[in-house]
Every structure is written in C-alpha cells, then in structure tokens.
Amino acid sequence: MSDAINTATPAPLPRQVADTYVDALVELDPLTGTYLGVPECHGRLPDFSPAGQEATAVLNRTTLEELTAAEARPGAESDEERRCARLLRERLTAELAVHEAGEGLRAVSNLNSPLHAVRGIFTVMPSETEEDWEAVAARMRAMPVALDGYRASLAEGLARKLYAGPRQVATVLEQLAQWLGEKDAEDDRGWFAEFAGGCPDGLRSELGEAAAEATRAVAELRDWLRDVYAPGVAGTPETVGRERYARWARYWNGADLDLEESYRYGWQEFHRLLAEMRTEAEKILPGARTPWEALRHLDTHGEAVEGVDEVREWLQALMDEAIAELDGTHFELAEPVRRVEARIAPPGSAAAPYYTQPSLDFSRPGRTWLPTMGETRFPVYDLVTTWYHEGVPGHHLQLAQWTYVADKLSRYQTTVGMVSANAEGWALYAERLMDELGFLTTPERRLGYLDAQMMRSTRVIVDIGMHLELEIPADSPFHPGERWTPELAQEFFGMHSGRPADFVESELVRYLGMPGQAIGYKLGERAWLEGRAAAQRAHGAAFDAKSWHMAALSQGSLGLDDLVAELSAL
C-alpha cells in the first residue's frame, strides 16, 4: 500500500503572513487597493464608521497572532523574514495603540483625514478608458455612505469627549468651501464636477449625476461640521500633551523616542544651519540683516519660473536631468524607476508639495504634486531642493525602488508598511546628498536648500515644544525661558522660514493635527546619516556609495529603531 501524498499547504512564514494581511486590508480599504493598482477596488470606498475602524483592528489583532506562530517556524530566522516580522509587529502594534485610544474618532486634519483620502484617491485613479470612468462614477456615488460613516465616527468622538482641535475644523471648513466651488467666482461647479468634466462624451450624463451626489455629500458633511461639530469642540486645547504625543510619535517614526533629546537636537541643528545660511545670504544680498531678508529679495529678483504650465514642465525637466546624471554613477536604476511625472495639485490641497508612489505594476507612475496656492510665479531657490526631496533622488527613488523589489521582499514592506520617518528621512538625506555632490550650483539655490533644512529643524523644535509645552532654552534668539504655545510656534516658524504666511499657517495647522509626524524628517535624516557613516567606517576605502545606496533602498520599510542597525551592516 503506497504512502498517502501530503497535499497540505506549508505553514506560512512572516513574509507570507504580511502579504496575506495586505490582501485582507485591501478588502477593507479599497483606497489602499487603488494605490496598489487593484482594479476591483477602484469603484469602492472604505467604511469609515466606528464598526469599519474596529474591523481593521480585528484584522490587525488576528494578524499579530498569526505572526507569533510564523516566527516560531523553521526559516523565520533568515534576515528577510526577520526584518519583515519586526516591521509588521511594530506597525500593527502602533496602529492598534492609536485605534484603542480612539484617535480615529477625532480624525479631523487639514491634510490627513478620511475626507482628504477620499478626494485624493480620484487624482490617482486610471482615467484612460470608459471602464475607468465608470469606476470613477461608482466611487463618487459611494461617497454619501462613506461620509456618513465618517460623520458617525466623529459623532461617537463627541459623545466620548474625544475632540479634534478647533483650528483643524476651521481649516477643513475653508477647504470644503473651496472643494464645493464657493470660493471660485469663475467656476462654482465644485471640484468633483470639474474632475468629472474630463470624462468621455458618452458618459457625461452619468458622471455629472455622480459628481452631483458626491458634491451633495460633501456639502451635507460641511454643514454638520459647521453647525454641530465645530460648536461641540469649541475651546478644546490645540495641543495633545505628552501621552498622546508619544503614541503618535511611535506611529509616525517607528521608535520610542527620547523627546527631550530630540528637542535638543533640533536646537543644535537650528544654530548650525543659521550660521551657514548667513554665509550664503551675504553672497546674495550683502549686509542683509537675516538670511530670510535675502530670500525675500530672491522672491522678486531671483531666478523664477513664470506660469503654471511652465513650472510643471520645468519640474519635469529637473527630475529627468537628475535621473540622467545620477543613474550609473550614484545609483543603478531599473527602467520602470526612471519614470516619474510632475503634476499640479488640485485646488484645496494643503500648501506643501507631495508625492504619490507608483502602483505595483508601474501602470501608474510615481508623481510629484505642486500646490500653486493661486500663484503664477515660482522662485527657483525653493523648487530645486523641494523636487530633489519629493522626486529624484528623494521619495521617488526610494518608493519606486521598493515597488520594483516587492517580489523579493514582501508587498507589505514596500507599500502599506511604510514608516513615515524612514521615507521622509531618506528624502531629506537626498537633499543633502545633492548638496554634497555639487548640484546646488548657485548661492540662491544653496540658500534655498539650507532654508528647507532649517524648516525641518524648526519642525522638531516647535512640534515637540508646543505639544509638550517645553521651555525655550536660554540661548534661543526667541523668547528664552518662556514655554511654547501654538501662537509662539507660528511666530517662530514664520521668523525662521522663507515661506509665505499662508504656508506657515498651513504648516502649523498640520503639526497640530498630525503630532509627531513632522519631526520624522530631521530625525529620519539623522538615522540615514548615522547608518551611512557606520558603513563607511566598516568598509574604509572599499566603501562603494552606489552599492550602498541601492542596498539601502532595496530593504523596504524600517522603523527608526531598526534603520541605523540595518544600514550600518550593509
């Protein structure tokens, strides 16, 4: 009698558990599915209600149990499995901590909320075929139910006294007025109707009706936020305090940070950068009282691009040039990674530029987005370093490379497991790298780079300082000995930034609504620099920057707790 054939499926290892998690998450969150390029998701929206949030939490808890079992199996000790397991456990634990504290019941923000996720998804959806546009219509028709679920979560937060900050609410109300076309005298159709206007002629009626449904849903939510929610949260403190801040810092940075040490580091960088900025400013405007006086001079007398279409083309050329110069010398780029598009952000976006990564099959390329904020003249000193950050060699090279090596890692590590401080730290490192390589060829471009670095240092200072109400040190040129408030933070940021007042205000609202996220740029950059320095010491004269960069970019996501150790070992 022959032995029975064993057809049992092998027990999963951590990378399989992680990718099974991605499949399950996509079912609950079709927005994630669209970003990953899953066509079946394009016509649906998530359940933003308390029940929908709890369903994701149940998935996270179940996955952690499966991960514990997977880590005990033979083969789980390999570097690939170990790194994935550590990331998955850290991310899901951090997400559960945020959920269990009820943060999803007060998710009102000028940048990071279900509202912004819903509108933003339309800008990355395919729009080449009638089938694509039918999915757009289906998703627009799904908005009333999705936004009702979001409102139910905020109402639950009100009932449980879990309040969003009043500034977040006021800012979102202003954004919604713009989305609804109430701030545009020339075109009052609203954002969704304008977006739907790009559809094929045969679908105009269907898309018009769907856009009207979406617009009504946004208007109804706006009215509820104005009439019910805003009065309900009036008087709520804008800052979050140490306990909430530490929880969010872990979420955004993948590390339990020493917040006081991080605050001191922010000040150290502030003083270092201020000295460098003064040197460059003297070359541009001799006798300038501050570096920002020199930057204001550049706003009107420096190199600039005129016109919205023209600036998009200029940014595309800048990224194309960077790819041509860096590929083969400091990086080794696969063909799909070499493609990146410059786009203009839709009206009503936050003031900061941003990047969206490619779909897993690269059918949607990586894209950079410039909010014009109504401007038509764009000084180059700021654009150059920002597009090295957002595009090449910044976010695009890292996130597109993750996508390219997804089959060697796991989809989780290269997509939904992204740690913000890892990605933002790389992008800030990329700006510094371009300075090291000599790409900032004029004093004004280098001053713009230093101003961007200074902004990231002041973020560490004011974000930690105001949320924890820390004391301003005695050697500060600004209100020494006082304790931080949002008002002082906005004044300090404005004094030490070349950005216009509306940008500064938008940034402050962002820091109040996303505590712990903005510090990841500078702290993440420090981690990348420390990892590179350790690898250089280990290899000595044999250190190969190109090989190190590609190995570093092919690791997938890591929290800051793990990043330095892994980079040092490459």
UniProtKB/TrEMBL annotation:
* Pfam family of the protein (one): DUF885
- UniProt protein name: Uncharacterized conserved protein, DUF885 familyt
Q: Which organism is it from?
A: Streptomyces qinglanensis
